[in-house]
Amino acid sequence: MQAPARLLLCGALCAVSGAALAQSSVTLYGIVDTGIEYVSHANAEGKSVVRMPGVTGEFPSRWGFRGNEDLGGGYSAIFTLESGFNLRGGDSGQGGRLFGRQAFVGVKSPYGTLSFGRQYTMTYLALLGADIIGPDIYGLGSLDAYVPNARADNSVAYTGSYAGVTFGASYSFGRDSAGTGNSPGQGTCTGSVAGRPTECRDWSVMLKYDASMFGVAASYEEQRGGSTAAANFFDGVAPIPLIDAADKDTRAHVSAYANIGKLKVGAGWLNRRVETTSIALPDVRSNLYFVGASYFVTPAFIVDGEVYHIGNNEHDTRATMGTLRTTYLLSKRSAMYAQASYLGNSAKARYSVSGGGGGTTPAAGTGQTGVMVGVRHSF
Q: Start and end of every Porin domain (predicted)?
C-alpha cells in the first residue's frame, strides 16, 4: 500500500476510534471521610468513649465506577458499581460486599431511566431534598438506621422527570440476596424462593416536584417478611420477627424544602408501621419528624443543623435529637468539619445519638452527647 493510502486509512481509523471513544465514558469517583468522635453514656454503665467511627462522618466513605455510553437518539447505556468501606480499618462495608452500596446496569432514555441490580429504594431518593444533614453520623440514621441504608438487591427501578415532576418506582424480588442484611437488627431476607413470590419482596414509589425556590416529595415503601427477617425500631426493644411472607414493614414519608438566598430549610415526616400475622405480636408504628436549615456564611463556610423527634406508642419510647454542624471548604474537593449532637431519651427508650457503627447504646432513659471533628476528600 502506498504511503498516501496508508495515511488516509490511518486517519479514517483514528477518526472512527475517536468518535467511538467520545460516545462512551467511565468515571472513577469516591469520598474518603473520617475523624475522631466522643460519645457520652456509651454503654449501660454510663461510660463514655472516644473513637474513630467505622461507618460515617459527614458522608459514608465509598469509591466506585460510573459509566455512560451514548446509543444515539437520546438513549444511553449506564452502569454504577459503588463500594463502601470503613476508613479506620480499610474493611468493606455492607457486610463485606464488594459493591454493597450500588451495583446496577440500565438504559437512560427521553422517557426515563430503567435499571436492574442492587439499588437505592425510593425512600432514600425522596428524602434527599429536604433532609439537610443527610447520611451524617448524627442524622436520621440515628433514629431509623434503615433510612441511609435503603437499598434492595434483585431490583428493577424506573425514574422519569418532566417539567420538574419526578416519578420513581422500584420492585425487588428478594431484597437481600447476599444474606448480610441492609441495616442493623433487621435480620436477612434473601427471597426469590420458588412458589413463594412475595417472600422478602420490596417495592417502593416516589413522587416529587423540584423548582428553583422549593420542592416537595412523598414516598411509600413496603417490605415483606421471610424466615430470617426482623424489624428493628432501634429504640432498645428487641427486633420483631417477620417470619411470614404476609408480614409487612412499611414506611410512608412526605417532606418539603425551600431555598431563600444563602439559606435552605427542610422539614418532613416519616411514618413506619410493622404488621405481622402472629396474634402474639401486636402491630407497632412510629412517627419521625424533622426540620433543618443550612446557611452559607461565606462561600467556603457552611453552618447547618437539624432537629428530630420520634415517638413509638406501642413501645412507649420517644426521643428528641438536635444536631449542629459546621463545614469549612478547603477546596472544591476537600473540607474539614466539626459537629455536635444531643439526644434525649424517654424513660424506656435506648436510642443512640451516634450512627457511627454501633456499640454506643445507653441505659434506658439516658441522654447522650456526641461530638466529632473530621476531614473529607472527594475525587
A: 12-347
Which parts of the chain are beta strand (E)?
24-39, 49-51, 62-72, 75-86, 91-92, 102-109, 112-120, 151-162, 165-172, 202-210, 214-224, 230-231, 240-241, 248-260, 263-275, 284-298, 301-312, 317-329, 334-345, 368-378
Helix residue ranges per DSSP H, the chain: 3-22, 122-127
Size of the chain, expressed as the number of residues it contains: 379
Q: Where are the alpha helices (DSSP H) in 61-130?
A: 122-127
Residues 6+ away with beta carbon under 8 Å from 259 = 212, 213, 214
* pLDDT tens digits, 312-336: 999 999 999 999 999 999 999 999 9
Domain assignment present for residue 204? The answer is yes
State how far the Cα of 231 lies from the Cα of 225, in Å rounded to an integer: 9
- pLDDT greater than 60 at residue 248: yes
Evaluate whether residue 373 is within a structural domain.
no
Task: State the sign of the Cα–Cα–Cα–Cα dihedral 323, 329, 330, 335.
Answer: positive
Q: Which stretch of DSSP H or E encloses residue 142?
A: none
C-alpha cell at 59: 458522608
Predicted structure pTM score: 0.91
pLDDT band for position 3 (cuts 50, 70, 90): very low
- Overall domain count for the chain: 1
Question: What number is the average pLDDT over the span 207-225?
Answer: 97
pLDDT of res. 319: 98
C-alpha cell at position 122 = 425510593
10 inside domain:
no
Q: Are 57 and 34 in contact (CB under 8 A)?
A: yes
Q: For residue 379, is it within any domain? A: no
**Which amino acid, one-letter code, is at 209?**
Y
- 350: domain range? 89-332+339-365
- pLDDT at residue 290 is higher than 80: yes
Res 96: pLDDT: 92
CATH of the domain at 283: 2.40.160.10
- pLDDT score of 25 more than 60: yes
